[in-house]
Amino acid sequence: MRTTLLAAGLSVIAIPALAETPVLTVLTYDSFTSEWGPGPAIETAFEATCACDLRFVPAGDGAALLARIQLEGAASEADVVLGLDSNLTADAAATGLFAPHGQTVANTLPVDFADPLFLPFDWGWFAFVHDRSKLPQAPTSFDALAASDLKIVIQDPRSSTPGLGLLMWVKAAHGDRAAEVWAALADNIVTVTPGWSEAYGLFLEGEADMVLSYTTSPAYHLIAESDDTKAAALFDEGHYLQIEVAGKLAASDQPELADQFLAFMQTDAFQSVIPQTNWMYPAVTPTAGLPEGFDTFRPAKSLLLSPLDAQAARDPALAEWQAALAR
Amino acid sequence: MTRAVPSIIALCLLALVIAPLVAVALRGAGVSLGPADWAAVRFTVTQAVLSALISTVLAIPVARALARRRFFGRGALVTLMGAPFLLPAVVAVLGLLAVFGRSGLLNSGLAALGLPPVSIFGLQGVLLAHVFLNLPLAVRMILQGWLAIPAERFRLAQSLGFGPAQMLRHLEAPMLREVVPGVALVILVICLTSFAVVLTLGGGPAATTIELAIYQAVRFDFDLARAAGLAGVQVVICALAALAAWVLMRPAGFGAGLDRQAQIPAPGGWRSMADGATLAAATLFLILPLLAVALRGVPGLADLPPSVLPAALRSVLVALASATLTSAAALALALAVARKPSVLAGAAATLPLATSGLVLGTGLFLIVQPFTPPMTVALPVTILVNMALTLPYLYRILLPQARALRSDYGRLADSLGLQGWSRLRWLILPRLARPLGFGAGIAAALSMGDLGAIALFAGERQATLPLVVQQLTGAYRLEAASAASLVLVTLSFALFWACDAGGRRAAA
């Protein structure tokens, strides 16, 4: 009670100072800002160091972020955009709205990733997740999956970033054979959903044997629900990476604060929050390490198309996918 | 002066729909639709026509049975008819899966009998979901028509010794001819613009709708010209459907009654058995998925995050505001059209159906953004968009009865000099209370569940309940998301019930 009064008193005193507190606006996806996402903890930690007011503005998912920034153009209130993935950065760079981040890149990604405009903050491997108690022996490649009569749910690449990631995965792993792989997979696909949550929901309801998600999804069930039945199937051809990045807008009216935030993004205070709020790998492994069970499903090989290759591959891959599945 | 009001409302509505389209189109240049787009157009139209036909045809016997039978729980069943329509698409899909899915009730039953399982995915799944969502709406709209036939006509028919076949021919068929085209049109356009249900249950890229193509154009390709072109195609299809419905719709012309609450004659024998079976089947079809939704949500209620409360409050306020605005605007338009057919008003009340929340939201964003940060107007814009999107439903519900009111009492009221406020107070509101309450309920509940505009505009502290549901699922918290959906559905339903019951009480 006394502390509340004290806090109230202090906040009254603080009001004149508040007017001069600079505001840093970070545009990001919905689940990042929600109270169970990384947003709140990161806001507290950053505000303790910056003498500023950090504001997250949520805008749908990764693809919606890009659309939003293109809608707003240089008039955007945002200073930093956080949550694009490497399949979208070529398009983002082409808008000319982003400024070089100027940071020394020091990440622990399983591949080399350095981009002058975009700085990674977390990453994950796409994988098919299944229930060990119902499917003890999961297939170990796309071909084995296609040859089985297992049912899978995937996401539509036209409306979701994991769906787009799967297109890139097949392309990166099988190149010219991609169309063939899709034709073979077609009869395994129960349905295609608009987004990740519908697909994951269908899988948990038992409508499919496997669902396209991340190697870290089982860690959620293990850590948050003490359920160790979920597993990620490891494929011999390797797993495609989703690398989530942030960038500074050239038109930002707080460029120093934006730089400060990007630097903060690579520190322990930011990175240690990621695993158990965003359920992705932190871009820089925190000194305390990863939570137990987080690293259970670790593919031996990582696949990634460069942003430019991903951009070039998108339309042909989409056409192949549509042709194979639309019979 | 008052005569100009409906025209002003109509013009504002048209501006609200067309300006965003223009704003979106201006940002791009040149429109070209590929073969994939035309395939999407074909599939969209096919599934929408089938969904509308099946829903409307099945609704007729159900509405008839409800109109002429009296039984315990009838009132509850009529209210329940509002529920599926108000479910957010994704919640409805999960409810249907619990009944018709791979490990659902139906397939467990089939397996127990040694029969092969049926799949919910594919065109049959899309139709199943659309019938589940829209059959109840059709039943309620047609039931309004049955109740609007003056009881005296039925009494007269009985005293003339009409059998059920003649009753159908002289009383029920003319009413159906007036009401059914409007009902089918509303369902058709609802199905034309749906995409989450169609994609999830459709099974893959073969089940692509125009709406998904618009979504892709805006979200991934940022090809606003293409989005505007696709939205234009959607507008044209809906306009054609509206034209067809307008041609088919003929006033029934029963004349006025004394409003006695009289029992519609109910034939006995096998007909009473058939009515019973119809009602039982419809009830089961609607209630099982709803029950599944409720059962799924209950366990998570205990650990709902605190942000649910303010979000719910915000949603309720948005819903109430947009329902009030919509009711007033739809009433004005329906009364004006009943007085004098007006292409302007008709177009204004139909066109919003054809645009999508996404295009409307994107266009308004482009219009608003040079003047103020979109975040600051998130809630007013949401209210406005919801108003535009729900107005067509109310208009369709009100129009036939506004026409009847005009032809039955218009001359008397004119000769009494009953005009303006007193006409509204003594004639219009009491006589249209039932459809107004029902329509306002639908408008409020639809606004509750809307996610289109708010997702584009929302700031940090403006999340509505559907957005919170979305965030919870995104964070793997599916149990809490189910519970939040249950709260959402309960609140929508409570709002609908309050408006609907209010209307029925005022009419009684």
TrEMBL record, chain A:
Pfam families referenced in this protein's UniProt entry, alphabetically: SBP_bac_1
Annotated protein name in UniProt: Thiamine-binding periplasmic protein
Annotated localization: Periplasm
GO terms, molecular function: thiamine binding; thiamine pyrophosphate binding
Keyword check for Transport: yes
Secretion signal, residue range per the UniProt entry: 1-19
GO biological processes: thiamine transport
Keywords, alphabetical: Periplasm, Signal, Transport
InterPro entries xrefs: SBP, ThiB, ThiB-like
GO cellular component labels: outer membrane-bounded periplasmic space
Record family assignment: Belongs to the bacterial solute-binding protein 1 family.
Principal subcellular localization: periplasm
Cited NCBIfam families: sfuA, thiB
Automatic annotation (TrEMBL), chain B:
UniProt GO cellular component terms: plasma membrane
Keywords from the UniProt entry: Cell inner membrane, Cell membrane, Membrane, Transmembrane, Transmembrane helix, Transport
Topology class, membrane: Multi-pass membrane protein
Residue ranges constituting the ABC transmembrane type-1 domain according to the UniProt record: 41-249, 312-499
GO biological process, one term: transmembrane transport
Compartment(s) where it occurs, according to its Swiss-Prot or TrEMBL record: Cell inner membrane
Domain of life, per lineage: Bacteria
Signal peptide coordinates: none
Entry keyword annotation includes Transport: yes
PROSITE patterns reported for this sequence: ABC_TM1
Entry-linked CDD domains: TM_PBP2
Bilayer-spanning residue ranges: 43-63, 75-100, 120-143, 179-204, 224-248, 277-295, 315-336, 343-368, 374-395, 432-458, 478-499
InterPro entries for the chain: MetI-like (IPR000515), MetI-like_sf (IPR035906)
Keyword Transmembrane: yes
UniProt name for this protein: Thiamine/thiamine pyrophosphate ABC transporter permease ThiP
Species this chain originates from: Tabrizicola piscis
